[in-house]
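step: validate -> pass
step: tokenize input -> pass
step: predict -> running
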Amino acid sequence: MKKNILFVMPSLSAGGGEKSLVNLLSQIDYTLYNVDLFLFNHEGLFKDYIPKEVNILPLPKMLKVFSSPLLFSLIKLLTKGKLNLVYNRLMFCIHNRTQKNISIKEQKSWKYLSNSLSKIDKKYDTAIGFLEKTSTYFCVEKVDAKNKIGWVHIDYDNLGMNPDVDIEYFKKLDNIVTVSEECATILRNRFPTEKEKISVIYNIVSPTMIHKMANQLNDNVYSKKENEITILSIGRLHYQKGFELSIKACKKLVDKGLNIKWYIIGEGEERARLTKLVESLNLQNHFKLMGLKANPYPFIKQADIYVQTSRFEGKSIALDEAKILKKPIVVTNFSTAKDQIKQGVDGIIVEMDPSSVASEIETIIENQPLRDSLINNLSKLDLGTEQEIQKLYQICN
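step: predict -> pass
step: emit ->
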């Protein structure tokens, strides 16, 4: 008999966690499992990539009303006589507008959001909160399942969350999954009473799928000019990704007379601030915020260098994708960088400042033997992680 699994996710908008979920769902054996997916928001770049076998649960009517713009939501709730939800909607708004730390904001807001959600009627063998915070809280409080799993995709200590909130949920989980050995060590140190529950399942990436999608656009996606060096970075426009370091490094390279164009694929709350910085440094012709791309792989394929100036990461899917497409890589020395990059072999790790980033990019541009060596080393790596799905099967049984 098939087992029933529920995945819980905020949305399928662009992001590493979202892409990780899509890749995982593409590897599940649907002759063994029935899979439901609960989303708090049904919009998102990756929705079209969800396998047809996955049943996306309908958005609860009350959640839809609660999540609407404030005035519309309050009027609707008042007309329905939901005075308790009117209070919770107002408190939800106040916390979201007054709390600057995004993680704390989500943690504190859950108690108000949760009041708009009923428990799911169906019983599951396994329920998986596939992203930290809200997805895990929902899994614990709103789902009836024999086995509950929380998934942490990030270096927990750098996310700025309140562990006193999470420990109460972690105690109620049967398993806590994270994406790298370094992330697992951080979690075990932070939550020693739950350390036996913690295990590692690497993000699933498929070289076959990536190469296929990389070849879907054969045109010059950058309108690249002769002798122009194309640099690419991918990530949400968020403090975590450190894109202001990229912009300042770009300025240093341009001032040295290097003919470069640096592109960012991603969207987020820091767009306005980053755009202002680009303009203040007169980099409009050299640094481009491209927004979201449903298929980023042709852009990775046609780039000359991939750069990631993150302040912290869990295990970056974008780095795995750049390695699969054999791009010379420069990354900042965030806590989990050495989990993914072997210094001087399949990439270069630099200090977290614009000068160090710019200096190493310049070295790669001007040192053809180094560039060739990095590409050659990447071509020898076995980078597929499809077998990681077996680890999920083990903890679901």
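step: describe -> The longest strand covers residues 144-152.
step: cleanup -> pass
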